[in-house]
Structures
1.
Amino acid sequence: MELYTCEECGKDSPNIKCNQCEGGDMKNNKDNQAVINQIMHVRRVEIEVVDIRRVVSDGSLKALADVMFGDSIIVKGFSVLMGKRGIFVAMPRKATKDGKWFDMIAPVNDEVKVEIETKIIEAYKDEVIK
């Protein structure tokens, strides 16, 4: 995660535009990057698939999974899908009133995304073998 510092108010943020003073210019703060990386590593959260439900159909949806983050939050509705290039995981999604879809959650980086996907696909394969 990169950290930026607002040149107007001095607030640190992972956002490119400052939310504090409504759009102040942000400057990449390389000095604090090592500290942030250490904090993110120390605050590593255990990821566990707590439920996987196979879906028997001819469609691309193969299973739904619920994942626990740490011992605090369970996120429901991860989809295991069969695509042209094999099995993949989609984040929980919701439709808006106008029919557009958006992800309900988003991993903070590729490392977390790969960890979530790996755990869900492993749980799915274990369920299929049963």
2.
Amino acid sequence: MKTKIERKMFKISGVVLMLMLLSQCSVIKSGYNGVLNRSLGKGVKVDKVYENGFAWRAPWNKIFKFNVQYKSYQEKIDILTSDELHTTIAVSAILHPKPEELPKLLLEVGLDYYNNVVKPEFFSVTRSIMAQFEYSSLSVKSTEIEKKIFDELKLRLVGKHVEGPNCNIKNYISATGC
């Protein structure tokens, strides 16, 4: 009788042990990289970025996952042209975090890097560049405008751990007051 109880306890112990081991494993999907935060230790591990696959960690630690694929962010931005016409443009920014700089990105900016750093710069650059052009020339000079926005945004994002800020103007929504 005692041996049956011992076998059941051994099986239960094995299942509990297996669950504990699995809870210490994080799966990083393809297209993502991870950064380890040691809650009870030295904080964010700045010298290692975990690539896709299994990453082992202590149960009290956490792995923050970043999508490192290029991503397109669509925005509608209200602008004022040089001839003082208000209009709205639909633009997109295509970018991704630099995989090798993810620990610094997590420490300095946080997980929501687009809303914290890129979006304010994107709006500011777009508005300042668009203010240099008259409303009637916007569609004709859209390639030139995109290049100027791209160049300025690229300058402003230096040291922000993000790369590839490409810009595309989707469309212009007619000016108010016309």
3.
Amino acid sequence: MKKILVFFILLAALTRLAYGQDSTKLFHKHQISYTDIRQLELNEEQQQQLKTISENTRLKKMAIQQDSTLTPKQRKKELHAQRKESKKQIDALLTAQQKQKLQQLIAERNADSPHNLKHSPNGD
């Protein structure tokens, strides 16, 4: 289970790097974190499906990144489409309860994000 989750986190990090974004900001506000996955309590079949999705996604993204015929704009568009497809596949393997829990976890994480904190005019 830990290997799958670590792999998924690395996949997310590679996606961020592919877009040229700061790798220290590992997760986009809608991406799934290691902690999120652990809290979903996936069964064995779901874990295996997630592993397959992650591996296929990794291979497809590598192929897109290595395709020298694509312009940067086309590459970004292809990577975005691949990310949407893998999210769709992950959503399909989750139960309704797991999807609800995931949405809750992401919302909680986003609420705690420094980008969502409002600063007072006094700098407090």
